[in-house]
Write a structure and sequence with these properties.
- This protein is mainly α.
- Helices cover about 60% and strands about 5% of the residues.
- The protein contains five helices and two strands.
- The protein has a two-stranded antiparallel ribbon.
- The N and C termini lie far apart (about 75 Å).
């Protein structure tokens, strides 16, 4: 009888986890990188990132300024979605290649 009850609890937990995951429309919305972390993830020095990436049209298009849901204040610090950042870097690299 204990095994049946334990299995029932396990099934309920699995259902709840699946329901929670299914309710995320876009999980990427919850994972943003700041400039320091973005440079690190791209294996770039911060100085290189600021000199060649920040303030390009591609970078400006993907900058996010999250809103504090409690106060309604918009962050002054820019954040990036990792997938959007990868695409922007590819566009920047492509632009560099066509200039040569």
């Amino acid at each position: 009888m204990e095994a049946t009850f334990a299995q029932h609890i396990d099934d309920l937990a699995r259902q709840e986890i699946k329901r929670t995951i299914d309710n995320f429309d876009n999980l990427d919305d919850y994972f943003l990188l700041d400039k320091h972390t973005a440079a690190k993830k791209l294996s770039m020095s911060e100085s290189y990132f600021y000199k060649y990436i920040v303030n390009t049209p591609e970078e400006a298009a993907i900058r996010h300024y999250p809103v504090n849901h409690k106060t309604g204040e918009v962050s002054e610090k820019a954040y990036y979605n990792p997938e959007e950042l990868k695409q922007a870097i590819r566009h920047i690299q492509q632009r560099w290649r066509t200039r040569r």
